[in-house]
């Protein structure tokens, strides 16, 4: 199962990559914003998307909307891992069809819980 | 103190001799109009206009001088050595912050390198220990063949050797992770210096803004300021003082509560 991690900071991508590996997900790719992520998603057969919100270029929120608007991607599970903590933003992300929302700073346990919850719902 | 008295003058508006002149001339004006002396009235109106312009010029002149003084106090004149230093402080504030980003990035990557090196060591140690423990239990239950026991004997011997080495490796890794946190001291100092600089600049900017607003008041200038709303869609970054704000969640529990209240 292939997972795409999108964050503009390489350290955060690395942290998420390590945590995912501990959870047994070893097949991961990285992108630094929505503009690089979207073509990868369209051609890469990813089973799961983990994205930050605030990134230069295309934001994670716009990426989420683009994924939901694309026929081949619209069912892709999306987990947002972000420092964005405004109520309006969380509501907007939920309405745009996000499957999980983790606010930074986060713990390994929270990330695990959210990912497991998302996969439970899919199965 | 000089600046304070200037401010007071501006707040009071016109100078006493000007108001006195205005009063005199307006009385004379209404008298001329009553008497039907319109030529005199028009002259008076012109004079009134001149008085207004002159006092305006004087105020603007004074404010311009104070503004000029303040700009000089702003310490952006690079001619003296002392001010050169201040200027370089201003211009390299962003270099300093870039240095903070670089240092924190380096520390994070160094820490993660060490964690990634040491995790497999710890995992291998755990796996071998638990395998040995299972076999040891079998030995104690006398479920082991002599040949198997001899093999276990050798493995335990090897395990002790590698355990010493691996524990040493992990200990060394942890010490280096500890050292990698030394950036906090350096970046902390840099950030504090930049914070002080920002505060100074803010104070001086504030007095410039106050003066500029006085000029605007006197000249009757109204600015069309379009406030640029930051788009929450692009993202606004981490929230400071989240606990004190109504429109921001203060952590993962807040997010979970909000989403479940919406039925997600």
UniProtKB/TrEMBL annotation, chain B:
GO terms for biological process: archaeal or bacterial-type flagellum-dependent cell motility; chemotaxis; regulation of chemotaxis. SUPFAM superfamilies: Chemotaxis phosphatase CheZ (SSF75708). GO terms for cellular component: bacterial-type flagellum; cytoplasm. Its main location: cytoplasm. The keyword NAD does not apply. GO terms for molecular function: phosphoprotein phosphatase activity. InterPro entries: Chemotax_Pase_CheZ, CheZ_family_phosphatases. Pfam families: CheZ. It is found in: Cytoplasm. Keywords: Chemotaxis, Cytoplasm, Flagellar rotation, Hydrolase, Protein phosphatase. Belongs to the CheZ family. This is Protein phosphatase CheZ. It comes from marine sediment metagenome. The lineage of its organism: unclassified sequences, metagenomes, ecological metagenomes.
């Amino acid at each position: 199962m292939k997972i795409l991690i999108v964050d503009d900071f390489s350290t955060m991508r690395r942290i998420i990559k390590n945590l995912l590996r501990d959870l047994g997900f070893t097949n991961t790719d990285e992108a630094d914003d929505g503009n690089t992520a979207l073509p990868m998603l369209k051609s890469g057969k990813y089973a799961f998307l983990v994205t930050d919100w605030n990134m230069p270029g295309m934001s994670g929120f716009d990426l989420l909307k683009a994924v939901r608007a694309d026929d081949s991607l619209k069912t892709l599970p999306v987990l947002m891992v972000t420092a964005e903590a405004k109520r309006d933003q969380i509501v907007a992300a939920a309405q745009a069809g996000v499957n999980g929302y983790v606010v930074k700073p986060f713990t390994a346990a929270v990330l695990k819980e959210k990912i497991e919850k998302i996969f439970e719902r899919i199965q | 103190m000089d600046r304070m008295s200037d401010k007071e003058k501006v707040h009071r508006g016109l100078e006493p001799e000007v108001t006195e002149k205005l009063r005199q001339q307006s009385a004379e004006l209404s008298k001329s109009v009553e008497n039907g002396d319109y030529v005199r009235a028009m002259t008076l109106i012109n004079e009134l206009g001149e008085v207004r312009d002159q006092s305006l010029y004087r105020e603007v002149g004074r404010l311009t001088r104070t503004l000029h003084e303040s700009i000089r106090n702003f310490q952006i004149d690079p001619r003296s050595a002392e001010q050169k230093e201040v200027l370089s402080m201003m211009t390299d504030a962003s270099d300093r912050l870039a240095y903070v980003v670089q240092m924190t990035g380096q520390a994070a990557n160094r820490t993660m390198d060490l964690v990634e090196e040491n995790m497999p060591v710890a995992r291998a140690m755990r796996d071998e220990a638990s395998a040995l423990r299972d076999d040891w239990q079998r030995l104690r239950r006398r479920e082991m063949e002599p040949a198997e026991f001899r093999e276990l004997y050798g493995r335990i011997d090897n395990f002790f050797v590698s355990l010493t080495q691996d524990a040493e490796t992990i200990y060394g890794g942890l010490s280096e992770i500890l050292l990698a946190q030394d950036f906090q001291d350096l970046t902390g100092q840099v950030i504090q210096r930049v914070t002080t600089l920002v505060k100074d600049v803010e104070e001086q900017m504030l007095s410039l803004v106050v003066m500029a607003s006085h000029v605007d008041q006197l000249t009757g200038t109204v600015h069309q300021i379009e406030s640029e709303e930051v788009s929450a869609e692009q993202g606004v970054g981490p929230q400071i003082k989240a606990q004190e704000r109504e429109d921001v969640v203060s952590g993962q529990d807040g997010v979970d509560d909000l989403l479940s209240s919406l039925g997600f």
